Amino acid sequence: MLFLKHSSLDAIGIAAVAAIALAACSGGSANDELPLIRATLTLKTVSQGGVCESVRIRLTPKELKGVSNKYANNRMMVTEVKMAGPTDENGAPMCNGTGESLPMATGVWEFSAPLASGTTTCQRDIEADGDLSIVMIDGVEGCGGPKSAQPDATMPAEDGVPAEGEAPAAPADTAAPATG
Length: 180
Fold this sequence. Notes:
- By secondary structure, this protein is an alpha+beta fold.
- The protein contains 1 helix and 8 strands; from the N terminus they run H-E-E-E-E-E-E-E-E.
- It is elongated, with a radius of gyration of 27 Å.
């Protein structure tokens, strides 16, 4: 009957250990206070056979940077956007949808969606105070808003003048035309 004699002490000891363990788990970390960043995803695509089905958008981190909330995703994920319609837009049956991503870590992310004309892909720098609106339109490159986070190196700066710190473009091949 030793068990019955000390059962109240054992219960108190177990309760104390459980309280200490719970206190250790409930302590937050510094990044708990950081915002959860979610992108707004807007799609517009041509209806296939008069039907508007949900579109799955793949979100892939390309370059994570800074510190994010501990609940932010830092790996590839897929978000489904429910589409509505079709609606008649300039004689074309269009499907439209808007959704929200899961929480994302800060950094450059690639967004990819299979639309009627093919897969649309773009990159965007995701920051708490940045542009979080991703707009993908069937037949239009990019994802709306500012240019891609990774600018196209083949595009010249405004007025063909290289930006500060950039080398001028190589001259075009000026070989003589073939005669004959």
